[in-house]
Amino acid sequence: MKRLVLEDGTVFSGNGFGSEKDVIGEIVFQTGMTGYQEVMSDPSYYGQIITFTYPSIGNYGVNRDDFETIFPSLSGVVVKEHCEYPSNFRNEETLDSFLKARGIPGISGIDTRELTKIIRETGTMKAVITSSERNVREVLEEMREYELPTDQVASVSTDKPYVIPHRGERIVVVDYGMKNGLLRAFTERDCHITVVPYNISAEEIMRQKPDGVFLSNGPGNPAHIPEATETVRKLIGKVPVFGVCMGHQVIARACGARTEKLPFGHRGVNQPVFDKVNNRTYMTSQNHGYSVDYNSIMSTDLKVTQYSLNDDTVEALEHARYPVFSVQYHPESTPGPEDTGHLFDRFLSIVRNWKEETYVRT
Q: What's the whole-model pTM score?
């Protein structure tokens, strides 16, 4: 038997699977019905315990093709039911064996509906997955003393630059905790990609002679990576820039806006976003705990082009003078709807126009 102990003192009892070790982290919930493998391998969940709201997880197993990164960064998994005998022609191992091999504990038999309601009402908080023998008071004391990490991006970003060669536009991808799906979006469009660490300087990026710079998704609070903000501030006006998720927030901060923590974040594949420019709604895939403060944008060169239909938070920004734009969601959508994949084509169109204008100016 296992226990899930929340920071507010709530205790759930269930059955352990995956690794048997105890773990502490920030507990969040994810609302997708499918895509649990991509979710668990998304670096943006670094240090978090994921509650899956869909009642049965693991029913189609785990395969070699749907990973978003090689080494998962999440701390733990909470489900109502984990499937022990998956059935799918692509299945290669069970959810239990996957988690065991990677040292990630899980707990099942939990009323995830009740748990999600608690998180929605109280907000994200610290939690512990532990054995049923441990004293709850002792566990709560451990949580009080535990500080959530602030080095999430540094922990999941690449250490050294690397290249994925092609003959198309030269795109520098700044890795804040990048999903593989983002790389697929560019390689499918024949881009020559150079992936660089989160703390690279603007000068080093420009030495790569990029046609465009892409800022990836990533975990945690953008305020914890001020060097990234400074880099992007220096890039604006020198090269086209496109950012998603963490990249979106870094662009906002680089232009003088603020970011703030959401009560329980946006994590799921069914997040509706309204586009004010095209007067239409998109369904999007999202995973973030922070958002751009709308009021702080008024004094910047940014304008809001999209907003969330759930809570009116900022979902997309454009720069008034330079070829810079961003979205809070994941246009590559793995898992999720493919409504916004055209944003990569838009970025590359901007890149080509910028190259032509630069050629004329010189």
A: 0.96
